[in-house]
Amino acid sequence: MNFSKEILVWYAQNKRDLPWRNTTNPYNIWLSEIMLQQTRVAQGTPYYLSFVENFPTVHDLANANEEQILKLWQGLGYYSRARNLHTTAKIIANQYKGKFPNSYKELLKLKGIGDYTASAIASISFNIPEPVVDGNVYRVLSRFFGIDIPINSTEGINYFKTLAHEVMDSANIRDYNQGIMEFGAIQCSPRNPDCEKCPLSSACVALKNNQVNDLPVKIKKTTVKKRYFNYLVIKDREDKIILEQRLGKGIWQNMYQFPLIESDKDFKLKDTEVQKKLEKFSNDAISFEMYLYNSEKIIHKLSHQHLFTSFWIIDFNGKLNDGIEVSEIVKYPVPVLIADFIKTFNF
């Protein structure tokens, strides 16, 4: 069986009509590939269309302010991707005069672009024979060839990259790379793949050895960390509120949130802790009433941590310094955890 030929035939018959497939412009390919990392196509597509509408060229993205970019990215998660997009857009606009480098090695030097993204841009935009290896490709190759080397180990990463080189169709690399990723997403899916209708089934080692549900192999992730968030939704007598920007390293960098009291253990929030916070935001005498909005903690799950979250409504009898009109909240980029609260709470 000619593996790459079967992939190309299948792709010609089954490829989805996706907006970034109507162009080979490296800017569009780059945007789509960054957005689809850790993100399903159905979820990522509206964000892609929004970015292309707001930032038609790499120069537009480079000249945008970070808050505008983070606001458009809101809800897509892994916000470092958005910040890296902005950084790389500036580099391409200023150092490369708006033109993406057309080699795998040069693309790899750009911030936020790793092996997979560099390979995708090089092959799809510039027709360079460089194979892509993403989660879908790992799954197809590991099942078809019956490989049980962990895909997130150094050995596995090197092994599958070499194998991908060996089986790729160099002459049709643009369609082949998109084809094998599409094949993994639709045909050789993570759960319940339709092996009976698979064009590779007659030579699939995993199917022959009843290993389809066991491959690919992945080393278990690190222990999930628990964090306890108490957000203070502070409203003053003029119905203004406080939003703070998250600075420094960590999740949601440069996004906005309500004032936060955090711990690594569950605890009961005390009035004195709230008072200390309020003293930061007002010169008036501290007088307030407070109540817990959600009786049960909202558990927000991230890749390596779970956030056990409570929202406390603080009715402050004084006036806040730098308070924000309630109607202005929607203009600020906030984590989806905060965005969901804003949607449900009647200010």
From TrEMBL:
Q: Which Pfam families match?
A: HHH, HhH-GPD, NUDIX_4
Superkingdom of this entry's organism?
A: Bacteria
Domain called HhH-GPD: residue spans: 35-186
Which EC numbers does the record give?
3.2.2.31
Which cofactor names does the annotation list?
[4Fe-4S] cluster
Q: Does the keyword 4Fe-4S apply?
A: yes
Cofactor note from UniProt? Binds 1 [4Fe-4S] cluster.
* Any single biological process term in GO: mismatch repair
NCBIfam families given in the database record: mutY
The protein's role, per its UniProt record? Adenine glycosylase active on G-A mispairs. MutY also corrects error-prone DNA synthesis past GO lesions which are due to the oxidatively damaged form of guanine: 7,8-dihydro-8-oxoguanine (8-oxo-dGTP).
Name of the protein in its database record? Adenine DNA glycosylase
Q: Which organism is it from?
A: Cellulophaga tyrosinoxydans
